[in-house]
Every structure is written in C-alpha cells, then in structure tokens.
Specification:
The protein has about 375 residues and is an alpha/beta fold. The chain is about 30% helix and about 20% strand. The chain is built from eleven helices and 17 strands. A seven-stranded mixed sheet has the order 8-7-5-3-2-1-16. The protein has a six-stranded mixed sheet with strand order 9-11-12-13-14-15. The radius of gyration is 20 Å and the shape is globular. About 45% of the residues are buried. About 5% of the residues have low confidence.
Length: about 375
C-alpha cells in the first residue's frame, strides 16, 4: 500500500487557494486497486489543471471521491470542471441550507423564518448549492462530511467538524442577518486592513504564534480529513482555525490511534490566525533541538505573490522547530508520496529554512 499527495499550484499573483489530488492503495497495480480523491478545486481555471493532472499522472478519468472543505471561492470554484469532465463517483460537501431548523430564533428580526434563512444560505453560498445540484443531476452520490464519515476504500476518514459544531457556526456565516452580519462586516474589514511591516528577529524554538488567533466561522467549518495508509497518517486541514483543529486533536486522542503522523497541510495557506502553540503541540509534537527531525512533511498552499501574508514566516518557523520538513507551493505544484512509482521530471525540494529574521505585519 502506498499514496501520492499532489498540491497543485494555485494563484499566479497574490490570491492563494487549495487544490489537492491524491490516490492511495497498490500504486503499482491496476486502477481497481487504487482510490482517487480530490480535496478542493481552487479557482475556476484550476479545475482544468486538476483534470489534466489526474489523467496524466494517475492514468484515469475516474475519481472515487471529491471533498469540498468549505464554500470559499478559492476552494470550490474549480470543482465544477472536475465534476463535468471526470467520472466522479461521490461528492462530500456541506449543505448549510438543510441545517436551518430553529435558526430564526438566533436573530432579532421577527420577520426572519427558518425557511427564509435556508433560502438566504442558498443565495449566499450559490457555488455550493449549484455544485450539489450538478452532482445530483449527474447521479453522483452526495454526502455531508461530518465526524466519522469514511470512504469505501477505507483510507479516508473525517475528523471534523461534528454536526453540532458546524450548526453552531452557521448563524455567524458572512451574509446572515442582524448581529452576525455586523460581526462579519467588521471581521472582513479587519482582514482587508493593511498593517505596517516591521522586522522580527528570533532564535531557534522561539514561537511567534499564540493561542488567541481567530478565523472566520466559515473557515472554522472546514472539513478536516485524515488519510491512513500503512500506519502512516496524513491530515488535510483546509482553512480550519484553532477551535476546529482542537476538536480534530480530541478525535485523534479519543480514538487511541497509534499511527504516526507523516504529513500535515498547514491550515489556511499558512495564516498566523489559524494555528496556535497548544494545538500544534497536540497535532505534531513539542519543539525539538535544532537539526532534529520527526519525519513529518507540512505543505502550505500559497500563491506566487502572496507573501508576507501567505505563508507567515512565524507559522513556517513554528512547524520547522518541531522537527517538520516545511514546504510552500508559491504557485507551483508539490508531490508528496510513499511507496509510489517514480515520477519523471519531479525533483526533491529543499525544506523551508528557519527564518531568524523576517518582515511581517506588526498587527
């Protein structure tokens, strides 16, 4: 058994996105011995790149499973092309408009009803709604990816979110009425606000991340996916924040799972607001002496011109001094694998160096 994990390059300029193709099973055998999965599709034009990548490198036009982590456009837009141009068997995607029971009570406006909230969610998340309709029209099985859901191949399992946690986030999704709308307007303004750059100097093992980071409710609704092959564990985090990652860590600890972590996606393109010291210690481990390795690879999916926002050097350092080989796509593809055939033209990458001095936003 083996696996290949491919992060496609997304974002020529400054807007980062996620598009991941993977396959696992007997990669030296027939297609029937393998499971092909897509996690997110990047922007609209990324869909064609995913289709060509799967055909060229996996030798198939059949995809067993497509997972949309959350409905942000840099994750969902390319999936329409994937569903249209490949033979997709199953789609895992959240349908928040079906979780509208009792939501009207969350808002002050007495004219709001559960039904109107459901319709508003369809309108606000039109790309997700239309993707579900497309899948249904094509006879593709659609399931919502909540904790515990596993694929037919047995390697993929959802660690989060739970139904309860997901439903607690919906009232604060961007575009919802009353208080939630105000909250998200303020948050959006904060995200777009430019902050002056300053120079930071750090020593080995000095964390410049903390546990107070906050991300949007929609980011925290991201699907957190585990791939388990040959007692090797890989984690895909989407744009999940600290609260969502803490829940996933709880699931791993409660399961008593002994498989070693070998790969982790750095959440939200390496944003500083999505990862903290405590949850990183739980998922990866405590900091190690300089030069020591845990045999774990971490990848941040970032646009070519996204720095210093994506990835934050403080985040890359935090993974590095925990013994992790850290990489960033910076608009190009990265191939991570175990027990897989050699791929012509793809070369080994040097890990991100530890940044003892770097520029970052002061805020």
């Amino acid at each position: 058994m083996g696996y290949e994990i491919d992060f496609l390059g997304v974002g020529e300029e400054s807007k980062s996105g996620d598009a991941i193709a993977l396959r696992y099973g007997n990669l030296y055998g027939t297609r029937e011995e393998q499971t092909v999965v897509v996690i997110d599709g990047g922007f609209k034009d990324t869909g064609s790149s995913l289709v060509e990548h799967i055909k060229n490198h996996y030798g198939t036009s059949e995809v067993d499973l497509v997972i949309n982590t959350h409905p942000d456009l840099d994750h969902i837009n390319g999936l329409e092309t994937v569903l249209n141009e490949l033979d997709v068997k199953e789609l895992w995607i959240h349908k928040p408009w079906e979780h509208n029971q009792g939501l009207a009570d969350k808002f002050k406006d007495g004219r709001v009803t559960d039904n109107s909230i459901g319709e508003r969610l369809k309108e606000n998340l039109e790309k997700a709604w239309s993707l579900v309709k497309l899948a249904e029209a094509k006879g593709i099985r659609v399931q919502e990816p909540f904790t515990g859901l596993a694929d037919a191949g047995g390697g993929i399992k959802i660690l989060g979110p739970s139904v309860e946690f997901y439903e607690s986030l919906i009232p604060d999704f961007e575009g919802m009425p009353e208080k939630a709308a105000l909250t998200n307007m303020l948050e959006s303004a904060f995200n777009k606000a430019a902050s002056a750059l300053r120079r930071f100097f750090v020593s080995w093992g000095e964390d410049k991340i903390d546990d107070s980071g906050e991300t949007s409710p929609r980011n925290n609704s991201s699907v957190i996916t585990q791939l388990l092959v040959d007692e090797r564990r890989s984690l895909f985090t989407g744009d999940a924040g600290i609260k969502a990652l803490e829940y996933a860590a709880d699931q791993l600890e409660q399961s008593g799972q002994t498989a070693d972590l070998r790969f982790i996606q750095i959440p939200h393109h390496g944003s500083k607001r999505n990862i903290g010291k405590t949850v990183l210690n739980r998922l990866v481990g405590e900091p190690v002496p300089e030069g020591e390795s845990r045999g774990i690879t971490a990848i941040a999916s970032t646009a070519k011109g996204a720095e210093p926002k994506h990835p934050r050097k403080a985040v890359m350092n935090a993974f590095t001094h925990r013994g992790v080989k850290v990489l960033a796509t910076r608009g190009t593809g990265i191939h991570h694998y175990h027990n897989a055939p050699n791929r012509a033209g793809w070369n080994s990458l040097d890990p991100e160096p530890y940044h003892y001095g770097y520029e970052d936003e002061a805020a």
